[in-house]
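Q: What would this complex look like in 3D?
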Amino acid sequence: MVDLDPVDPYRLRPIGIVRSNLKRREDCSHQGWEGAPDAWLEIDPAVAEGLDGITPGCELVLLTWLHEAQRNVLKVHPRGNPENPLRGVFATRSPDRPNPVGLHRVKIIEVEKRGRVRVRPLEVLDGTPVIDIKPVLPNSVDM
Amino acid sequence: MVDLDPVDPYRLRPIGIVRSNLKRREDCSHQGWEGAPDAWLEIDPAVAEGLDGITPGCELVLLTWLHEAQRNVLKVHPRGNPENPLRGVFATRSPDRPNPVGLHRVKIIEVEKRGRVRVRPLEVLDGTPVIDIKPVLPNSVDM
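A: Here is my prediction, written as structure tokens for the whole assembly.
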């Protein structure tokens, strides 16, 4: 059983952490397909049995918590370019937004024991918390 | 500026709520394309300017917080069918998981002033909190 704080149902419990060569926000591409590297997911041993069924070659939707984002931003210049007119954050993929969930489609390259999973590509910083992992559904119209 | 609790950076702040005819969990289809209805998103006026740029016809990725889910479940029978062998929750789309984020691809049908947005299809319960909205990117390999 996972130990969860019963008093705050809106609190995220990170299930793991990203280990990546990306150490500074300015090194990260805007999207994974824009040259992002491989990364390792180190999943908390307390929840690692939730990985059962994940195998190399599968595609996943990975959800991260972009912990360096600003949560009080509601409009941005898309892609950080001041020439782009201001736009509501919900119409952009800006990391700055009220709940900075990062959404990444990745391929599984390797699965090690003890909850280490190598994925590609991933455009987030080393140390970014992982909050969920979901399969891409074969007949999905959504992912 | 959005008022956020500065002491807990892992706390979600719902940005709105789903209004739907789905009132009981057993009425919800497993996935949106399995016969789910339209729903209204009622976005908190405090963050509604973040919707600027969202228009009917667009496709969105909607993130919800499946507040009735069990967060201490790590293995499930996929699709709730006991004949399916137990599988790690991260290899399934089960709502029961440590961080029960719902991921839904929807089409925008209508946008009203004051942050009401009608979307289709959406397989979550009336009253489900909305935590994020993102555009589907035109050249996206991920969504």
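A: To summarize the key features: Chain A has a mean pLDDT of 90. Chain A touches chain B through 56 residues (CB under 8 Å).
Q: Very helpful, thank you.
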